[in-house]
Design goal:
2 domains; 80% helix; 2% strand; mainly alpha; 2 strands
């Protein structure tokens, strides 16, 4: 590892290895993005739409309960997700409409796209805020001009990727059965977002190497 220069009042920071950063980020991505869809689909296949909704709600609340049992703080994002999935589940079960259950997340994707794009030129674009949750880097690293340019660039990339994601998801949701929606959307979005993630990881790795060289 390489020690990065720090302000006089701060200790030198030892830049973690890239693999360590991945170990920190991957579980959060799995918990928040991949496993919720997987458990809903399992419930849907085994017991129908109602079972899928119940399993999805149980997954979110189970994650919060597990943290409480372990004596860990429940992140605000988990509490927000619990509230949102509850409202979605109630509306979907009362109306019997799967569209209502999936429409809010799809609209949320468009909001995320707009947020990435609209903050790309700000001092703290949304891409940086996301990175701060996923990657343990101090402000002395995040505030470097090289990293600021990286976050602006990534805000544009992810804004465009999420717009394509939302457009595809909305079309599938309104035109296909829920089983087809889940299978096709999950596969297509996985390819789309994996491609964007690979671009981000390659760019990020390049920025870390530049920081290690003292850029």
């Amino acid at each position: 590892m390489t020690l990065l220069a720090a302000p006089p009042e701060a200790p030198a920071f030892e830049l973690p290895r890239f693999v360590s950063l991945l170990r920190h980020a991957v579980p959060r991505v799995l918990e928040g993005m991949i496993l919720p869809v997987a458990v809903f689909y399992v419930g849907l296949v085994l017991g129908g739409f109602t079972a899928g909704v119940v399993v999805a709600v149980a997954w979110v609340y189970g994650g919060a309960a597990w943290r409480i049992v372990k004596g860990r703080a429940v992140p605000g994002s988990v509490l927000l997700a619990a509230g949102m999935v509850t409202v979605r589940a109630v509306l979907a079960l009362l109306t019997g409409s799967p569209v209502l259950f999936f429409l809010q997340p799809t609209l949320g994707v468009f909001c995320a796209s707009a947020a990435f794009l609209s903050t790309a030129r700000l001092r703290r674009p949304l891409a940086r805020r996301v990175a701060e949750d996923l990657v343990p880097l101090p402000d002395q690293v995040l505030n470097k001009p090289l990293m600021q340019r990286f976050f602006r660039r990534q805000s544009l990339i992810w804004g465009c990727a999420q717009f394509v994601n939302g457009s595809l998801s909305l079309w599938l949701l309104l035109s296909q059965p829920v089983e087809t929606y889940l299978l096709v959307r999950t596969s297509a979005v996985a390819v789309l977002l994996s491609g964007a993630a690979l671009v981000t990881l390659a760019d990020f790795r390049g920025r870390l190497r530049a920081l290690q060289r003292g850029a």
